[in-house]
Amino acid sequence: MEQTGPLQHIVIVGGGSAGWMTAAALAQAVGPACRITLIESEVIGTVGVGEATIPPIRNFNQRLGIDEATFVRETQGSYKLGIQFVDWHHKGASYFHPFGQYGAEFDSVPFYHHWMAGHLAGEIAGPIDDFSMCWAMAKAGKFAHPSPDRRLIQSTFDYAYHFDAGLYAAFLRRYAEHRGVTRVEGRVVDVALRGEDGFITAVALDDGAQIEGDFFVDCSGFRGLLIEEALHAGYDNWQHWLPCDRAVAVPCKRGTFTPYTRSTARAAGWQWRIPLQHRTGNGYVHCSQFISEDAAAETLLANLDGKPLADPRPLRFVTGKRRKFWEKNCVAIGLSAGFMEPLESTSLHLIQYGILRLIALLPDQRMSPLLAREYNAQTAIEYERIRDFLILHYKATARDDGELWRYTADMAIPDSLQYKIDHFREYGLLVADERELFANPSWIAVYFGQGITPRRAPALAAMRSFVPVAERMGAIARAMDEAVAAMPSHGDFIARHCAAPPLAA
């Protein structure tokens, strides 16, 4: 007999950011109508290096009704205006990927078309970074919230956060448990499947307990305990495009308190720098084909802002995605769904949108396969779009001082990415779907920052010669300077609004 009615019990296997973000969002969405149980083991622990985010995380927190100042304070957080990329095109070069637009619109032709026309004609000497409000603030070490007044230059930027992923998980655990989520300590040692259709009916714990449910969320990390080991969903390996397969991470004493993430290209990968209130997070993402783990750790330790606060911790991964994120009555979220290296801080975003997509398509006990089909299609497209944007960073390089860079410069790339590059190189046009995570300013930043220059500007810009472009751009530059000068420093803003209490000795 077909089961009907709403779900009665959702079981989440795994904690960390993925598990507790899922638990908190589901608890807020379904309220007391459905039991939610989260199983995690203190022994297993979590990866816990996802400390940098992108602006949509603000929407997630707002959806949960979380006060920003409280969240930043309790997670030792800081603010993020974008990512500075150092040495990616060639050694000594840098550019900024901002969270916000370039300049301000003053014509029916987009601002960047006018800038591009002037730049290609030799009339504008500086980089497009000069017209990024985010970069103007970031290089000055300033921060303030955007203005809601769209007439002001202070409305043209966005922001995200840096925070301690472990503290964020703990923060959301308190939120979720307050709303009825039950946490069970234990390690899953077996998964029971229903004979007639292979659906999961229960998980067995190492203490002998059996936890039954009618829907399961796999947040078990790289292992994919439910989605792969039990349900064999399959995995698409993308290492031929994104060959880095290792990372070594270490915190250090906080140095300069920048309101941005830094990514510095190294001989066999790249190093992240993420400033928090109590420390700076660092890591070296690298390819094991071209550098040993010990050498990667040595390189990382030699390039820290301050004294290391722990021993370097190694991580291993395979870039790619599940062939099915939702299989039968199980959805994989977080590392169990796939892994995209944290070059553009998308790890928590993929968790967030996996959760929101699940809530939008939440099944009842009939478990319609159409829901899984739509979830899988949407999620696969999102991973592929992010994949292409990450590949662009590696492909568009003039570096030839390491085997990794020679490989990525010469490698064949997906047709979907090549099509975008071809359009930009020919006419400076940006080809994108409106549902893409990374909008036009993101692509502009990487294209120009890494040396992909159009042969000519879009045609319409040349037909707008009656527009006083130089005058308008000068006014924008002056407005940016005045706005930044009036802002508090990043440190002062946090001290005034959301300083975390000192850590216990």
Care to give the gist of this entry?
This protein is 34% helix and 19% strand.
CATH architecture of the domain at 9-77 and 163-238 and 319-381: 3-Layer(bba) Sandwich
Taken from the alpha-carbon principal axes, the silhouette is globular
Tally of helical runs? 15
Report the CATH topology name of the domain at 9-77 and 163-238 and 319-381.
FAD/NAD(P)-binding domain
Tell me the total number of β-strands. Answer: 21
Task: Label this structure with key terms.
505 residues, single chain, six-stranded mixed sheet, alpha+beta, FAD/NAD(P)-binding domain, 21 strands, seven-stranded mixed sheet, 19% strand, globular
Descriptive overview:
The chain has 505 residues and is an alpha+beta fold. The chain has a domain at 9-77 and 163-238 and 319-381: FAD/NAD(P)-binding domain (3-Layer(bba) Sandwich), CATH 3.50.50.60. Helices cover 34% and strands 19% of the residues. The chain has helices at residues 16-30, 56-63, 68-74, 111-120, 133-140, 165-178, 293-301, 347-360, 369-395, 403-410, 415-427, 440-449, 459-462, 469-485, 490-497; strands at residues 9-13, 35-40, 78-80, 82-86, 94-98, 160-162, 182-185, 188-193, 200-205, 210-212, 215-218, 235-237, 246-252, 261-266, 269-275, 280-286, 313-316, 320-322, 326-327, 330-332, 338-339. The strands form five sheets. The chain has a seven-stranded mixed sheet. Strand 9 (200-205) and strand 10 (210-212) form a beta hairpin. Helix 1 packs parallel to helix 6 (165-178) and helix 1 (16-30) runs parallel beside helix 8. The longest helix is centred in the C-terminal third of the chain and has 27 residues, at 369-395. The radius of gyration is 24 Å and the shape is globular. The model has no long low-confidence stretch (mean pLDDT 95).
